[in-house]
Amino acid sequence: MFLIAIACSDRSEQADTASALEAPTWHADSRIASLLRVEWEQPVPGLAHVEYEVDGEWRSSPERQVDAGPVEQIVLGVPFDTEVRVRVRTESAVSDVVTARTGPLPAGLPLPELLLADDALVESTDRFLLGSVNSADGGWNSGEYWMWILDHQGRVVWALPGEDEHFTIWLQTSLDDDILWDVSTYWSNFDQGAESRIHRMKLDGVVSETIDAPGMHHAFLELPDRSILWGGALDGAEKLLVQSPEGEVETLWDCAPFYERMDLNGWCHTNSIWLDEERDRFVLSFPTRRTFVLEIDAQTGEELRWFGYIPESWDFESPETAFVYQHGVSFTDEGTLLVSSQVDRESYEGVVREYLVDEDTQTLRQVWSHGEGDGITARFAGEAHRLPGGNTLHNTGTTPRVREITPEGEVAWDLAFEGDKLIGRTIWLEDLYRYAP
User: Fold this and answer.
1) What residue ranges do the domains of the chain occupy?
2) How many CB atoms lie within 10 A of CB 30?
3) How many whole angstroms separate alpha carbon 61 and alpha carbon 52?
4) Which residues of the chain are under the pLDDT cut of 70?
5) Predicted confidence (pLDDT) per residue in 89-110, tens digit
């Protein structure tokens, strides 16, 4: 049961003026039925916000100045098909209670199962997980992709289908507090990504901008100047393409000359891209047989250093700790390299590996890992994030499992979807209202 109160105040008005506030009305959003649209008649201009009780804990929307007259507030973070009691509160009165209910779960949405939630070990219980998943089994394939947000208990509080059967696997938040989501036709239409694009929206699901991203097949990033960068292979050769806010597209880096210099052949494509803002360089992951991680200068595209199985790569201190078919590569705040990997070339078992980058010896020395022996495979995709408090969020791609792991190797949070569906990036969000319209 969720209890919602709308508290209103105007410091220039007397309390008895506020008492004229009537009980609100409500309706579930017609497109995303977990969004409750609460409406009331504001008698005088003033500050207003919505308070609501979730699992015994009171929360609220941001306080905002509203004019006299009709006011609407979207209530976020309530699971689908949940009864809600709504009331209006002023300094002098409380309205009659109105009972509301969020709408039913959308048909076809895959539902997760929460396997573990240890509140003593997780970094926060007041957060929401943003991600995507294919409704079809079969690993890396097309199908109906769903974007979703889950609460700490694994309940779906927001969901929206992607477009047709194109891939949507690289969700992220923007500098302007939008949700950016990919529509990749590379793997669904086998058109080398000719129709790939990126949408921008708020949590009401209304797309405010569409950015063409020809050739996009995996990763994209919004850059600090609000340009969009992606790995594109429209002509069969991987390039890093950058589109400015004005819509101009230029090539930052081309794989073909690098492969020629390294005397390499075969398919070159990135499966993750990460911006190291402090050092102003991009970290690229290449998962094919010549698997490697490459750093390039973010301004010039110059190749700086690389790790893996190509000429002139840095070595691994121990071959048994080398990454294989790695995804989701990034550097931590401590300067260590973090990857989601397979255990070895003989196994699909998914692990997280963290390396100290030794500049003097040009080697990677593993300093932490997790997952080996757990029997959770990551045949395709996967990603690892270091969280602000030191825990690590790891998902295993086509074994659609998401786990939060402590530095001591204890599993703090564990969630799974049934089957071998492909799960995209997963990111914890601390405040849903940042992304509200």
Assistant:
1) 2-101
2) 9
3) 8
4) 1-19, 88-95
5) 656 656 677 888 999 999 999 9
